Amino acid sequence: MQQRTLNAGRRLALLLCWALPATAAQAGQSALTGRQVMERARSVNQPDDEVMQVEMRLAPRGGRTVRRRLRIEYLKGPDGLDRTLIRFAYPRRMKGTGLLTVQRAAGHDDQWLYLPSLRRVRRIAADARTERFVQSDFTYEDLQPEDLDDNTYKLLGTATVDDRPCHRVEARPRSPSGYARRVVAVDAERWLPLRTDYFDASGECTKTQTVSGVRKHGDRFWRPGRVEMADHRRRHNTVFVISDRAINQKIDPGHFTERFLRTGR
Amino acid sequence: MMAALGCWGARAATGGEGPAGWFASHGRGKLEYRLYWHAGSRPQDSRKRRSEYRLRVELDIPLGERARLFVAPELRWDSHHLSAGALDERNRDEVRRPIFHFREAYVEWRPGRWDLRFGEQIFAWGTADGFNPTDNLNPRDYLDLVDNEKIPVLALAATYHVSDVTSLQVVLLPLFVPSRFDGQDSRWSFFPAAPPLTFERDRPADSSAAMQFALRAKTSVGGWDLSLSYFDGYNDIARPSLRLDGQGQPERVHFDYDKVRVLGFDFATTWRNIGIHGEIAHTWTRGHRDDSYLQYVFGIDYTFADIRPGQNLRLILEYAGERRTSKGRDLDGVPPTRLGRYLDGSLLARAVYEFSETASVEIKACATLRGENNYYIQPSFTFDVRDDLRVKVGADIFMGDDDTFFGQFDHNDRFFVILEYYF
């Protein structure tokens, strides 16, 4: 396992946790701007903590599918900063490998990687926005929560995705990005982005992200059971299948320490 | 929490309960086959092929809420009889590896902020990749110089977690275990094939006076990981001296283990996407029979991402050096092995190019540039045939004059194939 393949744990957790969904209670507004749609989709439904099991399926077109199974634990600390622990369970050679990410108030996150074969915890560098996560089709930029001040938004209209009414919003980056623009279809009732198309400077659609298996957890949290990214140029796709999700179960803060990273206890 | 993770893994792997499900939750294993083929011969050993088999299992068994038992039994056998006996035989003078032993076997108890661990353990101190001068607790098995590995030691380790990021650790080592290397009849011998010699060791006695201990304070602050360490014990690498017979001819090589104290410091931080790390340690040798010296290593790591879509290059570069602060007495005509001290003005590099999720090429290299030029290079190719089956092929290449550390193994250039099955 290479160190770089484990970077951006916090961002992955955010993608699969609260960064995308919002509550149905926010639905029903009219004459929204593109930014208002994205604000709703981003900010409303943040949990205090969340735990999930994820199976990653990396599939080159016509090639062998590679699987990874991991457990993700997320906690928003009392200081308002995110903490994430990712622990690999499969394949066996990676079992016990863990990545601890602690957000810092300023600057890059702190990240430590535990490699059981070496019995060693290593600090690792923060990620480049355009790097891939675990050889997948998600870049770290894709996994980051939407930074509303980092983009300009334009409401393009409405669309139907998987029989759900959606707002179509175009996002153009203000800072360096791997994309020239994105078009996001946000569920107009659940405020969950259901489809995102990524375009390069020539206007070509290079990647498409879709979600499915959306269901409500508890009385307010809409979450996808499956997130898929297709890289049209690389002819490769990545699927996250999420199971055993638990939200706001008061996870032990001690899980986000080097001590727990080493032993799992 | 981990039990829940394990149970999930068990269901995924086996689809049920029973012993297989229990093992999937609490254990893992690796079956390994290695084939080495040497291109040349050394006077000490002219055999060209060596096969090696290893079976290693790890079991992590919870003992209630705050304790666990970790055992890692290992079976290994090879065609050159580098392995013999079992369970380390408690005869730590044995230069052969045990066929069966516990790679690790300890009980851990975690009352409050304390972690108490007792048993056979492997420690990993320091932040560097290729050389760790602050990591002195485990001796090493140098029967294969390239694939050298740590030997477990019986230890009591107590760690107090002052906070989430600060800890103090004390380690007591009641029994001394020397590093393992061969005398005269191996490819990796440090002594000439002739004249035939006998080897004897003067190992510290198993007494409280010979107990070794180490301390380490570690913290993280402002994006820096910092640790200060101290080791008071024995140099596990023997200092050889030559004993002559009545006619003044070489007869025996006597191994002594010097008492040493090592004060070390290490750090790790990041700057943008570059990882930066370093270690520095000073070793004082008691009695001035051997040198006292300062060793250091500084390095960086960086990843060139998406050179082509999905392909990455990861680089680790380190520079290691040494400065002698006190010269030891002459070593009675026997050159030291230089194990542990061969990196002086040396550049260490590791480059991994990932073609895909399943294939990568790696080059490891070490070049000693100060004084006597000598080099070691290992190119290799790794391919994951399946999620649980990996094959690695490569070569070990040594260059340099015969009187240099790597150059003395110039005739040991070899190809290797490694098959690993994980379960």
Feature tags:
heterodimer, A: 265 residues, mainly beta, 13-stranded antiparallel sheet, two-stranded antiparallel sheet, 15 strands, B: 423 residues, Porin, three-stranded mixed sheet
Number of folding domains of chain A?
1
Q: What is the CATH topology classification name of chain B?
A: Porin
How much beta of chain A, percentage-wise?
A: 35-45%
Mean pLDDT of chain A: 84
The ordered string of helix (H) and strand (E) elements of chain A is: HHEEEEEEHEEEEEEEEEH
Rg of chain A, please? 18 Å
Question: How many separate domains make up the residues of chain B?
Answer: 1
Query: What would CATH call the class of chain A?
Result: Mainly Beta
CATH architecture of chain A: Clam
Distance linking N and C termini of chain A:
22 Å
Q: Poorly predicted ranges of chain B (pLDDT <50, ≥5 residues)?
A: 1-15
Overall CATH architecture of chain B: Beta Barrel
Major beta-sheet overview of chain A: 13 strands, antiparallel
| Low-confidence sequence ranges of chain A | 1-7, 18-28
Give the radius of gyration of chain B. 23 Å
CATH superfamily of chain B: Porin
Describe the protein's architecture and organization.
The complex is a heterodimer of chains A (265) and B (423). By secondary structure, chain A is mainly beta. Chain A has a 13-stranded antiparallel β-sheet with strand order 6-5-4-3-2-1-15-14-11-10-9-8-7. A two-stranded antiparallel ribbon of chain A has the order 12-13. Chain A has a single domain (3-263), classed as outer membrane lipoprotein receptor (LolB), chain A, CATH 2.50.20. Residues 1-7 and 18-28 of chain A have low confidence and may be disordered. Helix content of chain A is 11%, strand content 43%. With 423 residues, chain B is mostly beta strands. Chain B has one domain (25-422): Beta Barrel (Porin). Chain B is built from two helices and 23 strands. Chain B has helices at 2-14, 18-26; strands spanning 27-38, 49-62, 67-78, 100-109, 114-121, 140-141, 149-150, 153-161, 167-173, 198-202, 212-221, 224-234, 239-244, 250-256, 259-271, 274-285, 292-308, 311-326, 346-354, 359-368, 374-386, 389-400, 414-422. In chain B, the strands form three sheets. Chain B has an 18-stranded antiparallel barrel. A three-stranded mixed β-sheet of chain B has the order 10-14-13, with no helix packed on it. A two-stranded antiparallel sheet of chain B has the order 6-7. In chain B, helix 1 (2-14) packs across helix 2. The radius of gyration of chain B is 23 Å and the shape is globular. Chain B starts with a helix and ends with a strand. Classes of the chains: A mainly beta (265), B mainly beta (423).
